[in-house]
Fold this protein.
Amino acid sequence: MAQSKSIFPYFAVLQRTFPMLSIHKFTFNPFQENTYVIHDEDGIAAIIDPGCFTHAERTELENFIQENRLEPKLLLNTHCHIDHVLGNAWVKRKWNLQLGLHKNEVPVLKSVEVYAPNYGFQGYESSEGDYFIEEGQEIAIGKEKLKVLFVPGHAPGHVVFYHKESGQCIGGDTLFRASIGRTDLPGGNHHLLLTKIKSELFSLPDETVIYSGHGPETTVGFERIHNPFVGERASY
């Protein structure tokens, strides 16, 4: 979830294709969370932050995977706030996948089952992580590899997935176009998030595309200059 300073338009599906990696965005649930399906040229795929909760949302994701003849091999969470994990259990069961997350996100994920009904998600099905993702690790998706960057602050175990060859990042709720992730939720740390964005994300090339957990994509170069929280023109 982004700081309330920025409001982004709704984007239902985004497709951006490079020779080695394709990224497809779906916007799900009342939080307008971005779920990503990424795959290599052979159709080996990863599902990242499945926020699909309704039958219609799950059908949309399933149909896309079937119609494009993709083979999901990985289920990953950048972090485990409710809007990013609503579809975890269903995806695990549907494609017989194991869930990868950072160890610091275990209590965050566990807490969702407690407060989900308060947000209107009666019938939420809890899930558990099956293995831990570590900073600096490389995760293979078929022929391609994603590097794990550790960018806590919005959530205590928030990770970002970076594909160097195509200059693309799945950034979760770290950096948005002209905004950053909110830090007033349990486990949030505003100073830490600012520090990690500058040290981890701003160390990437300016042309790197950041696919955020909400709203449109942005680039490192744009945010390095224009972001009001961490850019060169930051006012605070």
In short: Residues 55-67 form the longest helix (13 residues).
